[in-house]
Specification:
The complex is a heterodimer of chains A (580) and B (604).
Chain A (H helix, E strand, L loop, with lengths): L1 H6 L37 H14 L4 E8 L5 E7 L12 E6 L7 H16 L4 H9 L1 E5 L4 H9 L38 E10 L1 E3 L7 E3 L9 E8 L45 H12 L3 E9 L3 E4 L11 H17 L4 E4 H5 L6 H7 L4 E7 L14 H12 L5 E9 L3 E8 L9 H20 L5 E9 L5 E9 L8 H6 L5 E6 L2 E8 L8 E3 L6 E4 L7 E10 L2 E8 L6 E7 L1
Parallel strand pairs in A: 3-4, 3-9, 9-12, 10-11
Antiparallel strand pairs in A: 1-2, 2-4, 5-8, 5-14, 6-7, 10-12, 13-14, 15-16, 16-21, 17-20, 17-22, 18-19, 18-21, 22-23
Chain B lengths: L31 H15 L3 E8 L5 E7 L11 E5 L8 H16 L4 H9 L1 E5 L4 H5 L40 E5 L5 E4 L2 E7 L10 E5 L43 H12 L3 E7 L11 E2 L14 E2 H18 L13 H8 L3 E5 L13 H21 L2 H14 L3 H12 L5 H12 L4 E9 L3 E8 L9 H17 L8 E11 L2 E10 L8 H6 L5 E6 L5 E4 L3 E4 L7 E10 L8 E5 L5 E4 L2 E2 L1
Parallel strand pairs in B: 3-4, 3-9, 9-12, 10-11, 15-23
Antiparallel strand pairs in B: 1-2, 2-4, 5-8, 5-14, 6-7, 13-14, 15-16, 16-20, 17-19, 17-21, 18-20, 21-22
Helix pairs in contact in B: 1-2, 2-12, 6-12
Classes of the chains: A alpha+beta (580), B alpha+beta (604).
Chain lengths: 580, 604
């Protein structure tokens, strides 16, 4: 049985097999996977690459790996390319770039990229839609932009929000010492939680009378009543004696502020580093993208909050080109339909200013329609997404749907300055990542959203060729080129900034006297004439999504000729014609 | 703005011959080989007082060097350093000669000259003699041309082909100069005071443009534009991270994609001992009234504002005055260019950066002979006299009244009026006045030429380098005056010191410890730019307790953000208990570039 399965990719069927024992395209009566993963877990750095490698082993023609650089701590930066070479090399096709985990704690994006690769490979050859997609486009997947951050988040004591940074020692408090005052895992449990101290009658907090596991602040009152507890912040000690606790931990920067569009220095944009692409993880990615101008779609996975984000990152930019906004809005609307409780948002306006962000650079610098998804929203924990229960609601969920596993109960510990304290709180893998049983839903929906985005990548089809007789024995050759996809062959941004190489519409094999783009199908004189070299029409403005463009060549002669379209972000097309 | 009057050329077609021998160039200019041999020679002669490292390799395969001159191989920790940057642009290749001569003078002067010895005993000097090594090679090439872009090239004319239409020496005179041709859309007219010079037509004065002007070259791709698509576009000194101009061809692919830009940026990070920068280039902030900006910076977080912060203007003003006194350089202030090293150094690294354009063609040359002047006035007089004779009565009355109020006789007031109405020479015409007397080869006469694509044109204009490079006779003097200025700067650098470090015994092993950290120098420990950028580490003050002692007041470690210049002070007080031996207690401070010190308190 398995032998037949290996032959399947080469027998792209018109009628798809009903029960072949391979592939998983949705129906609950599940057929066995060729490669099986558990989707109810998160995977450490080594495991992520090992899983991708098992995909390479199972589908060696369809997925390949290259190392494009190294992290600060020497971990590999890998790009996995998914493509069907039988229908063309990856760089002859529009490609989608997907990455994840630039913030070390924002881990579940790597699982989402793994799911995407696995899903495409599992379904190629058995599912018509996926087969067609993978035949006409390619995917460049980099699962961990910050492998050091991820590895340290797993291995070290962290909160849900720490280990966001890379791991180049950085002097955050500017005292000449590097990374000298990090969190301290006082109870050695691998999680950084909260400290409190019992000080009867002298505290700022009290236990919630209905739920003694919850702390609440004592409101100011005329009776001067005090609580019995003081809160002491996250587990930590003032390691360098400067009066501040945990102010200079490992690393201390933000690699998603390093990208070269509207980049601002550290004092304007925290974490940006001394100049753009300062950290090796970022520079190797930029170099890869500059070297692959066929990338026509970008997705970069973060957590959390349930957002589908696009730029601009700063108000000063102004607004994006209107034609491109239509494309963004369309895909953003799809995202809201496919990802429950996610919102399509503009970064500076609906979130906060981010200077030097990756997705904004991918659009503003490279002219690519790019999104950043913030994976997972806690709305998903509750019926109807109702988060109004607050602390109590969270506790209810943890107690009843996780059997209390997400919460570390308050327990005694010793602190060198504060003496006897208690430590407790939620685990680092609660809050920003889904609970185990909801991981698969999250990765599936987001992988299919990537597929939706990839589906939108440009395509050029020669729709119609017409001939007409002109005075003087000349002929008109009218060729209609159509882009049936949503994303243009060149975005308005690329056109206005001269990014990359312009598209070329050419007619070879006959003497061409004049040419131009027709703007009126009835009036032939309504034409934007090409200024020189009329056989070869060079166009900075792309072929818009879901639109057609008719080019007229005025020729002398007849017989065989070849009309071509070539450009960076769609498969080049050529057609032989016979001029009567 | 990019100095279009100097031209931006891409690397030219392979038809170039090998670089001319240096004797052809006005001595003592250095091509790259000469830099290497000079450095080797000096290093050989002066041992470990001179070290060199390669900080980048250019696209053309040439190394960019950073030199270090010091009193010896062991450099005291936290000793401040001055960085001298030269050769920032291709047009000012001569500044490398200045920098290398400064190196020689420092090395030869150590132990012999008091000022040099004092400087090197207290300060490290880093020198990058030429940052843009590829561009400067054009200075020695045939034909002679000025090179701006040497890096990443773009398809400037968007025809799908890159670099097909660079500048070229089309009349074979060995120089890439300028083309002018008559065109109804032309913006330029001849300067009425000197037809060789061109000025923009001013519609308000009723002037109508006559000429178009473009760099010498062909229209190789037939798009009716000449030399618009050179092979290289990115300019090293426009590729830095500060105020980088996205999508400008000259700015490069991304900040620091150009190796020299990356190399210098990394060098700066690796040398936090640098406390001051002197940069020889196309920016100039030591002229009178350089551009400033308010201390609060731009209104909007993402905006970028150009100019020196108000708080730093005092220091720049004083240093500028001293500079002008010592060098006599009257160059007007030239502001910050997008993506320049100078802007990056000041605004991002927070370093006081003295931008110096060491030489420019004087604008105040006088005409050579007074007799000629009188004769010219005579000729000018005649038409005006005719006008007044024909003038109607009331005008004549007005003129008479003016005369009366001026208290001058008729002839003199007519002269004044003539002078007022006479066209004033534009800057280029003023420069020609000087160049005619000092550097004849500086201007190539406009000569008719049949351009293969444009038809009848004229080729000529300022020769490459004429407007920025001093004549050979002046280079030595310029160099020595700038060296004198450099020697004064060591004393201005902040050099912090602990003073009044005292301990008072309060009984029972309890001590009150006091100390003062002081900055006696002109410059504050941090410029306003450094305070905003948080790029220079504050001084770290610590108290080191003896075994068994405990801190009962004050912090173990404190950071001092900024000590102002000329006597800024910060006081510290601690209360320490359980002190067995007070001599084991230390107060220390540490900086990257303003000194470091440990002191035991004096018991009072």
């Amino acid at each position: 049985m398995l032998n037949i399965l290996y032959a399947l990719p080469f027998l792209i069927p018109t009628a798809l097999p009903q029960e072949t024992g391979q592939g998983f395209d949705g129906p609950p009566i599940k057929r066995p996977d060729k490669v099986e993963f558990h989707w109810n877990r998160l995977y450490d750095y080594d495991e992520i690459y090992a899983h991708f490698d098992s995909l390479v082993a199972a589908w060696p023609e369809m997925i390949s790996m290259e190392v494009i650089g190294q992290s600060i701590q020497g971990r590999e930066m890998r790009v996995y390319t998914v493509n069907n070479p039988a229908t063309g090399a990856h760089d002859t096709k529009p490609a989608m770039w997907i990455d994840a985990n630039v913030h070390g704690n924002e881990v579940q994006g790597a699982e989402a990229t793994l799911y995407l690769a696995w899903y495409l490979l599992q379904n190629h050859g058995t599912n018509e839609h996926i087969t067609e997609l993978l035949d006409r486009s390619a995917f460049y997947i980099l699962p961990m932009v910050n492998p050091d951050g991820r590895a340290n988040w797993f291995a070290g004591a962290h909160t849900a929000s720490s280990s966001r940074t890379g791991y180049k020692p950085t002097d955050n408090d500017r005292d000449g010492l590097f990374d000298e005052d990090s969190y301290d895992d006082l109870d050695g449990d691998g999680h950084i939680t909260q400290m409190r101290k019992y000080m009867p009658g002298e505290g700022t907090h009290r236990l919630n009378p209905d739920n003694p596991r919850l702390m609440e602040r004592v409101p100011t009152n005329e009776l001067g009543l005090r609580g019995d507890w003081i809160m002491l912040g996250s587990e930590g000690i003032d390691n360098d004696g400067d009066g501040r606790v945990n102010e200079d931990g490992e690393g201390g920067y933000d690699m998603n502020r390093a990208w070269p569009a509207m980049w601002r220095p550290e004092h304007v944009q925290f974490g940006a580093g001394p100049y753009p692409l300062y950290w090796p993880e970022t520079r190797c990615i930029a170099d890869f993208l500059y070297a692959h101008p066929n990338v026509a779609a970008v997705q970069s996975f973060h957590n959390a909050g349930g957002m589908i984000l696009r730029g601009p990152g700063g108000q000063e930019f102004g607004e994006y080109e209107r034609a491109d906004l239509r494309t963004f809005d369309r895909l953003g609307a799809d995202g809201e339909k496919m990802l429950p409780f996610y919102n399509y948002m503009v970064i500076w306006k609906d979130l906060y200013s981010v200077y030097g962000g990756f997705a904004t650079w991918a659009y503003e610098g490279l002219g690519i329609i790019a999104f950043t998804n913030e994976l997972w929203t806690n709305s998903r924990l509750y019926p109807d997404g109702d988060e109004s229960g607050g602390q109590e609601g969270r506790q209810y969920f943890d107690d009843n749907l996780l059997a209390g596993a997400g919460y570390i109960e308050w327990h005694a510990a010793e602190h060198p300055v504060y003496g006897e304290i208690e430590i407790g709180g939620y685990r680092k893998d609660v809050g920003r990542v889904p609970p185990s049983f909801l991981i698969e839903e999250m990765v599936h929906r987001n992988a299919l959203y990537c597929i939706k985005h990839a589906d939108a990548m440009p395509e050029v089809v020669i729709e119609k060729v017409e001939f007409a007789d002109l005075a003087g024995g000349l002929k008109a050759v009218d060729v209609t080129f159509r882009n049936p996809r949503v994303i243009p062959t060149r975005t308005a941004r690329s056109a206005s900034k001269g990014i990359g190489v312009p598209d070329v519409y050419a007619l070879e094999g006959v003497e061409v006297l004049a040419s131009g783009v027709r703007s009126d199908r009835w009036r032939q004189n309504e034409i934007a004439l090409t200024e020189r070299d009329p056989a070869r029409l060079v166009s900075d403005s792309g072929l818009q999504g879901l639109q057609a463009r008719t080019v007229r060549w005025i020729v002398r002669g007849n017989g065989k000729a070849t009309v071509t379209w070539s450009g960076e972000k769609a498969v080049d097309v050529a057609q032989e014609i016979t001029i009567p | 703005m990019i100095p279009t009057c100097l031209g931006l050329l891409g690397a030219l077609a392979p038809a170039w011959s090998a670089p001319a021998p240096t004797q052809d160039a006005a001595p003592p200019l250095h091509d790259h080989a000469s830099i290497v041999s000079t450095v080797q020679f000096l290093a050989g002669a002066h041992g470990d007082r001179l070290t060199a490292e390669v900080i980048a390799t250019s696209p053309g395969g040439l190394d960019v060097h950073a030199l270090r001159v010091s009193a010896g191989s062991e450099i005291p920790e936290s000793q401040p350093a001055i960085l001298l940057l030269a050769g920032l642009d291709g047009a000012r290749a001569y500044t490398t000669s200045m920098a290398l001569d400064h190196v020689r003078a420092l090395l030869e002067g150590y132990g012999n000259d008091e000022a040099v010895t004092e400087l090197l005993d207290t300060t490290t000097i880093y020198i990058v003699p030429r940052l843009d090594v590829d561009a400067a090679q054009a200075r020695f090439a045939r034909p002679r041309h000025v090179l701006g872009g040497t890096g990443h090239g773009v398809d400037n004319d968007r025809d799908g082909v890159q670099g097909e239409d660079p500048p070229a020496d089309i009349d074979g005179d060995g120089l890439v100069t300028w083309i002018r041709y008559e065109d109804p859309e032309g913006e330029w007219i001849e300067d009425p005071t000197d037809p060789r010079a061109m000025i923009k037509a001013d519609a308000k004065k009723g002037q109508r443009g006559k000429w178009k002007r473009v760099i010498e070259g062909f229209d190789s791709d037939g798009d009716e534009r000449v030399a618009e698509d050179p092979l290289h576009d990115a300019i090293v000194n426009r590729n830095f991270a500060r105020n980088w101009n996205e999508h400008a061809a000259y700015a490069g692919l991304y900040p620091t994609n150009e190796p020299a830009t990356f190399g210098l940026s990394e060098f700066l990070l690796a040398h936090p001992d640098i406390a001051l920068v002197v940069a020889y280039g196309d920016e100039h902030n030591l002229g009178e009234k350089p551009k400033s900006q308010p201390d609060s910076g731009p209104r909007s977080r993402g905006d970028v504002q150009v100019g020196i912060y108000e708080a730093d203007m005092t220091a720049y003003g004083l240093l500028g005055e001293r500079y002008r006194d010592l060098t006599g350089n009257k160059t007007k202030p030239q502001g910050e260019e997008p993506g320049s090293a100078q802007g990056f150094l000041y605004h991002h690294r927070g370093l006081f950066t003295l931008d110096i354009d060491p030489w420019s063609v004087p604008l105040d040359a006088k005409k050579a002979e007074p007799e000629e002047e009188a004769a010219e006035e005579g000729t000018e007089e005649a038409p005006v006299e005719e006008v007044t004779e024909e003038a109607p009565e009331d005008e004549a009355t007005e003129v008479a009244n003016e005369d009366a109020s001026a208290g001058a006789d008729d002839d003199e007031s007519k002269d004044e009026k003539k002078k007022k109405d006479a066209p004033k020479p534009g800057d280029d015409a003023k420069r020609l006045l000087w160049l005619d007397q000092n550097s004849e080869a500086a201007f190539v006469t406009w000569t008719a030429f049949e351009h293969p694509q444009l038809g009848p044109v004229e080729i000529g204009g300022f020769a490459p380098y004429a407007l920025v490079e001093p004549p050979a006779e002046q280079l030595a003097e310029t160099t020595s005056k700038h060296f004198d200025f450099l020697l004064t700067l060591g004393a201005d650098l902040p050099r912090l010191a602990l003073v009044d470090v005292e301990a008072k015994a309060l009984g029972g092993g309890l001590f009150e410890v006091n100390a003062v950290l002081e900055n006696p120098s002109l410059l504050p420990q941090q410029s306003r730019a450094a305070q905003r950028a948080r790029s220079i580490r504050p001084a770290r003050v610590r108290i080191e307790l003896p075994d068994g002692a405990e801190l009962l007041g004050g912090r173990e470690q404190q950071l001092v953000g900024n000590l102002s210049g000329a006597g800024g002070r910060e006081e510290f007080r601690w209360l320490v208990g359980g002190v067995g031996d007070i001599a084991q207690l230390q107060v220390t401070f540490h900086t990257d570039n303003a000194g470091a010190q440990s002191a035991t308190p004096e018991v009072k």
